[in-house]
Amino acid sequence: KAGDINEDDRVDLLLVDRSCGAHTCYSTIHLDSWDADAETFEDWLAGEPEMAEPEIRVEEVAGEGRGLEIVLHGGVIGSAGAGPQRARTEIYASDEGGEYRLFSQEYDASLCLYHAILDANELLDNWEKVGFEPAIAAYRAILDDTTLTNCSAGRVPDEVATLRDFARYRLIVSYVALGRANLAQPLLDQIKHKALHGAADAFLKSYRSTTSIIQACRDTTRYAVATPDAWQFLVDWGYGNPSFEAEELCPIR
Fold first, then answer.
1. What is the pLDDT of residues 56-77, one digit of tens each?
2. Please, is 202 exposed, middle or buried when counting C-beta atoms within 10 Å of its C-beta (0-12, 13-18, 19+)?
3. What is the sign, positive or negative, of the torsion defined by CA atoms of 211, 213, 216, 218?
4. CA-CA distances (angstroms) from residue 76 to 22, 30, 56, 88, 156?
5. Which of 14, 27, 88, 171 has its CA 20 to 30 Å from the CA of residue 136?
6. CA atoms of 145 and 115, how far apart (whole Å)
């Protein structure tokens, strides 16, 4: 596409570079903006966004004053080895004529319980920016939503029960961090997964003796290193999904 896409009185050129492997085609987008003074095109897109099998649109979706946005929808890798996946929408926007940057990213709805865990984990990982309430709401929703299903294709034994117990463990950490430690014990009593019960117990014992969330997480990490069963069920969900390490079991540092 060519034209003044972001309405900054400069001609832009949007290019898509497509390459294909055995199962999936990937598209990388490039955006150049014409610099009349230098008589050359200037890179006008932060990074080189790439997505598997995307549908690409140029339209106004982020409000007036930004010109048009670049919208990508896709991201599903066509290989069983990639694991359970869901499509996502990425929007790239130009703020006041500046170079295009990622404006928002949103995943399609999914009934896969693992995807709900990933979303809740991201919220807890960002606790310094958003607080603990969003993660608590997400983990609570996991426990309340009976429509969420298994999707690991046999990678994780007792998948649904294990992931729900992981959500209970993360709720314990989040509630204590929020100052609501009184809600922790009922959740601990509900955890049936032996290693996760041990992780939650290690966290609570450390917190009660030190009154420090950070120290409780450090002690829980020591437990995790010695007890890989508490987290290894999150390690291998296919190469299209993130891995997991012992240090991530208790992410408050």
1. 999 999 877 678 999 999 999 9
2. buried
3. negative
4. 14, 21, 14, 8, 22
5. 88
6. 13
